[in-house]
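REQUEST ID: PR-0412
SUBMITTED BY: lab tech R.K.
PRIORITY: routine
TASK: structure prediction, single protein chain
INPUT:
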Amino acid sequence: MNNNLKNALINYSGKDRIKQIKFPKYMNSLLAEEIGIHIGDGFLSLEKSDFRVKGHKIDERDYYNNHIKDLYKKLYNINVNLKDYEDTYGFELYSKAIKSFKTKVLGIKAGKKDNITVPQIISNNNDNIKIAFLRGLFDTDCNLYFSPKNGKTNHYPVLSLYQSSRELIFEINRMLINLNFNTRVYQDHRYEGWTICLYGYNNLFKFIKVIGFNNRKHLIKFELWKQNFPNLYKKWRG
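STATUS: complete
OUTPUT:
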């Protein structure tokens, strides 16, 4: 796939030019990860040029301070103003250029995410780009937990990802299957959405090795599991 970006489609406001917002010329892993973050924790207004990325007020603060802030500076030359909101932590910005880049160049749908899909610039790309996208999405939206099995304490790993968009979930599922993960997809009637689950030790260790996390809240859970179950860790790490 041609990874050159059609940045001539970007519309700048006067404030965008004053802020010296910049855009990558080519699709790369960092941009793919940011697209995953957008689909996970982000929101792009349909009618206005508002763009927001917000996560958990407590357990994602470190991720926003030490990863997301730097990522937006590297990609767009934007110094995002991270702050507390009522129930979340993150940033809001108003940029005509950001909105046009995301919608016209990257092909991300604005508005509610009930029908959002994986942009073709990701789905038609190589595995490295898809992996970076998945990392951003799972960093922001996945739940890593350990459940009891066979009467034991909470030791059995589960990675779950909920989305309201059916098409998005099935596109992500295809990506994971093509990367040789074993997946299960469930319809969540409580919240009118869909969930992908990756069950078991093989899936967890493969995920850590192939996709990985930049969000420390997931890595902390993994480290605690290693400490609590050293024999299982030694058995399954390969």
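NOTES: Strands lie at 42-44, 50-56, 83-84, 88-94, 142-147, 156-163, 184-188, 193-199.
REVIEWED BY: pending
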